Automatic annotation (TrEMBL):
This is Asparagine--tRNA ligase. Homodimer. Its EC number is 6.1.1.22. The gene is asnS. Transmembrane segments: none annotated.
């Protein structure tokens, strides 16, 4: 529709015209007779210049009264100004207050992450959070674009289910009219049914895991994209995952430059990650690399680098705090914003430095047969600049539905894709067992109730064919693409252990 006002992002196309813009005050400063208002409208930020002599008394009063995050409307002329982001500013002819804001809580210094998370509903207005959500949006459209372009049918898997998919230890159970039900852990099993009806499908929906530990990559509610393809084997499955990840990274690099700038994302690293083919390592090869001397040396170097970065950030914060008293109002705002960034990063560094010695030991002592833990994955990915695909895990650490490797019965034809730069597993999947008797055995061996899987067994009774698929975790993908240290910044309202509000 044609809107009766102009979005900030569209202003460059209106130089010389008089426009109406609506937004919130991101930052205000000024001197006698002159106010600079940074107006934020969700599409961008523009500087509005208000001169006391150019506007009526009511407008000037409004401009002076505006507090941070007050909503206001400006009518004015768009002027080209190369110094401004977007290359334009607005010369106000009138300013109208829409809603004055109370003193805004996200300004004072020394906000820890928990303080910000408690105010997530407001924190999401700040630039970094805004940028991350825009990248998330682009990733979502890239995923649909890839699958739709390849002829997949999107399917909505049920959220309330009667069966576990990924083990019983992370189930959210609820009472479904006197019958036990679960919030779905994965749409895979229902996706397999749909693949037998449509050939290739993908789900894109919320999934739930009662994860009882606090880590930087576990949410209790996350979005998963699960393609499932009839007549695909493990190798074809890997190829789909690789193409999908390249499509995602390329879309974001092409369309989200301003967002990646705000996030301080190393775009070259992201571009390097699109080099195909991604390395494919068997689990056994991955274990050899993990336990090597080379890995130990790499981790020592990393500890040293983080200690140096911490020193630099602490010095910068001390300098900023010392300058704070003398600083002008606008400068104070900049210092406050920077303090938040520094605190978030210091938090991440502290956590990494707490963890690294443990990771070193765990890598050195890793024994064939165990599942790769989060830290092991992080360590492994430090060796590569692209995502790396690890396949053929010990069957004992994988789900009941995995097909066995015909060459080695100890192994399952499963695969994980580990994102580079330490991000670790973003994709898990594999080739599915097709044999009814084998599946029955596995359901029993995993302690799952056979009756809940009757319908699933039917898929092996009526035209069982080789098929494969995987699940891509949206939030972990956003974290990697944005270069964020924790999944809590990848969802609008993340749900984690101990975090249900806001
Ligand atoms: O490896 P997972 O558990 O695999 C499955 O659920 C399969 N049924 C998928 C399939 O083959 N269709 O989970 C898949 C992905 C992980 O690689 C990770 O990216 C994400 O889902 N994931 C989580 N993301 C955030 N928080 C959690 N607690 C997650 N658990 C899994
Ligand atoms: Mg997994």
């Amino acid at each position: 529709m044609t809107e009766p006002f102009t979005r900030v992002a569209a202003l460059p196309a209106h130089v010389g015209e008089t426009v109406t813009v609506n937004g919130w005050l991101y930052n205000g400063r000024g001197s006698k007779g002159l106010r600079f208002l940074e107006l934020r409208d969700g599409s961008g930020v523009v500087q509005v210049v208000v001169r006391e002599g150019d506007v009526d008394a009511g407008s000037w009063e409004a401009a002076e009264a505006l507090t941070q995050e007050s909503a206001f409307r400006v009518v004015g002329e768009v002027r080209a100004d190369e110094r401004q982001t977007g290359g334009v500013e607005v010369q106000a002819a009138s300013v109208e207050v829409l809603a004055l804001a109370e003193p805004y809580p996200i300004t004072p210094k020394e906000h820890g992450v928990e303080f910000l998370m408690d105010r997530r509903h407001l924190w999401m207005r700040s630039q970094r959070q805004w940028a991350a959500m825009r990248v998330r949006n682009r990733i979502i459209t890239a995923i649909h674009g890839y699958f739709q372009g390849e002829g997949y049918v999107q399917m909505d898997a049920p959220i309330l289910t009667g069966n576990a998919v990924e083990g019983t230890s992370t189930l959210f159970e609820l009472d479904y009219f006197d019958e036990p039900a679960y919030l779905t852990q994965s749409g895979q099993l229902h996706g397999e049914a749909m693949a037998m009806a449509h050939g290739k499908i993908y789900t894109f929906g919320p999934t739930f895991r009662a994860e009882k530990s606090k880590t930087r990559r576990h949410l209790t509610e996350f979005w998963m994209i699960e393609p499932e393809m009839a007549f695909y084997d493990l190798d074809m499955n890997m190829e789909v995952a690789e193409e999908l990840l390249v499509a995602i990274a390329e879309a974001v690099i092409a369309d989200c430059k301003p967002e990646l700038d705000i996030l301080g994302r190393d775009v070259d690293a992201l571009r390097r990650a699109t080099q195909t083919p991604f390395p494919r390592l068997t689990y056994t090869e991955a274990v050899d690399l993990l336990t090597s001397e080379e890995t130990q040396a790499m981790l020592d170097a990393e500890i040293a680098a983080l200690e140096e970065e911490r020193g630099g950030l602490e010095a910068e914060r001390d300098e900023n705090r010392a300058a704070y008293g003398q600083a002008k109002k606008g400068e104070k705002r900049r210092i406050d914003a920077r303090e938040i960034e520094i605190n978030v990063r210091l938090d991440e560094i502290e956590e990494a430095l707490r963890n690294l010695p443990q990771w070193k030991a765990s890598a050195r002592d890793f024994e064939w047969g165990a599942d790769l833990g989060g830290s092991d994955e992080t360590v492994l990915t430090r060796h590569f600049s692209t995502p790396v695909i690890v396949h053929r895990y010990p069957a004992a650490v994988k789900a009941f539905y995995m097909k066995r490797d015909p060459e080695d019965d100890r192994l399952a034809l499963g695969m994980d894709v580990l994102a580079p730069e330490g991000y670790g597993e973003i994709v898990g999947g594999g080739e599915r067992a097709t044999d009814l008797a084998f599946l029955r055995e596995q359901v029993a061996a995993h302690g799952l109730p056979e009756s809940a899987f009757d319908w699933y067994f039917d898929l092996r009774r009526y035209g069982s064919v080789p098929h494969a698929g995987f699940g891509l975790g949206l939030e972990r993908t956003v974290a990697w693409v944005c270069g964020l240290g924790h999944v809590r910044e990848t969802a609008p309202f993340p749900r984690l252990l101990g975090r249900l509000h806001p």
